[in-house]
Amino acid sequence: MNSCLPALLLIVSLTIVGCGGEKSSSAHSNTLVFSRGSDAQKLDPADVDDGESVKTLNQICEGLLRFKSGTLELEPWLAESYSLSDDGLKITFKIREGIIFHDGTPVTAEAAAFSFLRQMDKEHPGHLPGAIFQYWTSLYSDIETVTVEGPMTLTMGLRQPNATILFSLAAFPAYLISPQSLVDYGQDMVRNPVGTGPYQFSSWEPNQAIILKKFDNYWGEPAGFERLVIKSVPENAVRLLDLKAGKTQILDGLQPAEVQPLIEDPNFDVYHEPGMINMNRDFSIWVFDLLTASGRDAEYSSLLPWSRTNVRSLGSQSSSATSLLRESTKKKSWKIWTIDGTLKDYLFIIPA
Fold this sequence. Notes:
Elements: E1 16-17, H1 25-28, E2 31-36, H2 51-60, E3 65-67, E4 74-76, E5 79-84, E6 90-95, H3 109-120, H4 134-139, E7 143-150, E8 153-158, H5 165-168, H6 180-185, E9 199-205, E10 209-214, E11 227-232, H7 236-244, E12 250-252, H8 256-264, E13 271-272, E14 286-288, H9 290-293, H10 297-300, E15 311-313, H11 318-328, E16 348-349
Parallel strand pairs: 2-11, 2-12
Antiparallel strand pairs: 1-13, 3-4, 5-6, 6-8, 7-8, 9-10, 10-11, 12-16, 14-15
């Protein structure tokens, strides 16, 4: 079963960045405004499958592992270290000391276990009515046990060796949320996320804006702004007007034809970067050539490290797939994207 992981805001989905000449008033007030085409559906990392929800959660929540910025290389994050047993059937995490959730409760092995047990156990109080937890059955189904072996030691027992499980544990469905949020909000915890990230949830006006604020007790590098306003503005033209008027500092979701004038505008610098990929359980990788799909086959097909097709499975061997991905990320004039079997263009424009 394929795991459709969308490109994520501020991780690997920055595909086009522009710098305009006008400073906005919100920049001076230490507020960053990001305009996007639609709103989040819910803010439960274990039970979302839309990119808009994930982009928001990326600012609020974190996992035991993460991908190093701009790479597919794993690094421990909320866990200070991790190890895999020789037989491949046990993962041991040492939780980093001194981290707290946004509600002030500590991140411990028991708190970390909550985010996994609620997905795997239908009788768990955090297994909310109506929740699907679709990624548990596709990405994490080989996890048989989650055990607290000490205040800061968490282990996972696997049914069988799984070559991709650590990569899956760096993805958003494995983000940690505070167990106290279930006590404080009940089923409304999906609209009141409590994580450990640089920004904490403040408010949500559906189809208007989600407002996040800087978490002053963040354990890592502090957030760059006091407030992050994530606006829902369906019309591309309106988002562009807001950008040029200084009412927003970041936008995405433009069509290629809408980007071209910005490329030609001397007030904007436009950069092309690789987008996001994703994997299915046996590490097959589906690559979509967006430039071919948008009618630019002749100009860019020579840049592609595989045959000229819109979509192609690159096999099930992790070594060859990883090698191809590493080679592909050297190409700066195209990007790859996979989500739900559809081709999409994904762009960010950021004025200076």
